[in-house]
Amino acid sequence: MPRAPRRPSDEARRGAYKPRVDFSRSRRRREDGLLALRRLDRDAGLFKRRRDETAPAVHASDPAPTSDQEAPPASNARPPPGSSSPPDPAAPRNAVESELEGLSELVDKVCSDDTTSQLEATVQFRKLLSDEKNSTVIRIIRADVLPRFAEFLSRHGLPQLQMEAAWVLTNIAASDYTLLVAECGAVPRLVELLRSPNANIRHQAIWCLGNIAADLPSCRDILFEHGVVTPLLSQFRDDMKIPVLRTAMWALSNICFGKLPAEVQVKPILEIVSQLIHSADEKILADACWTVYYICGGVDDAIQDVLDAGVCPQLVNLLMHASASVLLPVILALARISAGDDAQVQVLIENGILNCLAQMLARNYPKNIKKQACLIVSNIATGNKEQIQAAIDASIISPLVVLLKTSESDIKKEAAWALSNAASSASSEQIQYVLACVHNVSSVLWLMTLDLIFCNVCLPSGCRYLVSRGCLEPLCSVLSYQDHDLVYMCLEGLENILLAGEAGKKGEESGTNPYAQFILECGGLDKLEDLQDVNSDRIYELVMKLLQSYWEEEVSESDDLDVPGSNDSADTVETKPEDAAQPPEPVSGADEAE
């Protein structure tokens, strides 16, 4: 078995001591989780929408449609992938399949110079696309008529042809071939149609642009290149019909997904959103909240812009909304805001988020909602002592412990992180409260939470209190577990405890690290030496670091005592239980100054 190299100097070890917690560490850990959530946004918040209702008649003299003519997007739920299956060859042919046989004739009409034939053929193409089958879309795309439809968008003297062409492109953009629509020359013309005097045409152009924005980042890049944001924002007016407002808000949320270009100003967007998050319409409300969530993750320093827009109080109020379609983007947006600095987190606390979260954790909410609620509590708990105390005063620890006992594993892990973060910069009294709440959970969950607490606590006073409560011995027992992640977490916790022991070594008459001695006497050193043979590079490297830093003399002595031919080369000096070092007494109030 390899042995630790020579121990470094005391000065080198003291230089490695971290006098306080890196408060951003736990928040950065969750960014990976948030990125994973963003990959699911296309199923939860981004939707492509088809338009299948009867087309309203559009005339050049019509200034605006009636509310009955304005049809909203069909649904707020995106159909599952693969729902459109290829046609069965044995099935009887329907009207669409029959018309596909005459596709070449329709192409000839579209490419002709006769405007009546062009309109008739475009209407037929729109009807063909109503069956939502990719096979139909593919045949139309192969007919190479998309550039022709894009050209029709510029026929300002023929508004009905503009409308039908925009409709055809909208439904093709709702398929898997959105990029072809974005690259056929339609985007600048669609943006131009946002200034059309006809409300029906403006509505259809918004719809098509929303479908393009819901696809690849390259599609959104094309939209930004043609300046889509400003003309789209100009569509939001006080006299907008609800169906048009739904479509515009949905399109705006899709455009805000992902990384926004630097030239896009988010403040005008947030001015509109700050009004629409008070909407009584559930679809408008949900898309407004998705927009806030996307902006928080897609723009540098956007959290402060969101807070300055005044949306935080209403977002917190919406945590009690009955609809899951609203609650999900709300809690995701608040989770991103909670990853801000202490001053930004304080705004959430002052608006009463902790009381809402305590209710959510105690009630029967969906799994993804509860997981995000735990994450917000965890982020708040990485703040200062006053913010930790606010979480305690809101009675939020008890429901976290219940989740630690009864929920699925990923929620248990988030709850454990929230509890451990609550101890990351807490006072001894606050740590005592957290440990008292967690003490009655199962042994494995207790050890997992304890590992996390030790990983985060670096304040000498907090470490002394944890050790005085007998937490170090059960922590060492985790070193024999088979779960490498849990073992590594345990090693990180031991490293923090030993670093804190170095700071308190000056007060020891023997000049030794009291926590290193206690780990030795409770069998922790034997387990550390056994871990040198584990099949994990990161565990081996951290074990070697600890051995060479704190037990070089004991390891050397063990080498000298090895009997030739013996297989038990990891034995150390045997200690009797009655000789074991007693844990330090709980710290007094004066120690908190450390």
UniProtKB/TrEMBL annotation:
Keywords: Protein transport, Repeat, Transport. InterPro entries: ARM-like, ARM-type_fold, Arm_3, Armadillo, Importin-a_IBB, Importin_alpha. SMART domains: ARM. It comes from the Eukaryota. One of its GO terms (cellular component) is cytoplasm. Residues 78-90 have a biased composition (Pro residues). Residues 7-54 have a biased composition (Basic and acidic residues). Gene3D superfamilies: Leucine-rich Repeat Variant. ARM repeats lie at residues 185-227. One of its GO terms (biological process) is protein import into nucleus. Residues 1-99, 556-594 are annotated as: Disordered. It holds the Pfam family Arm. GO terms for molecular function: nuclear import signal receptor activity. Residues 1-60 form the IBB domain. Binds specifically and directly to substrates containing either a simple or bipartite NLS motif. Promotes docking of import substrates to the nuclear envelope. Forms a complex with importin subunit beta-1. Belongs to the importin alpha family. This is Importin subunit alpha.
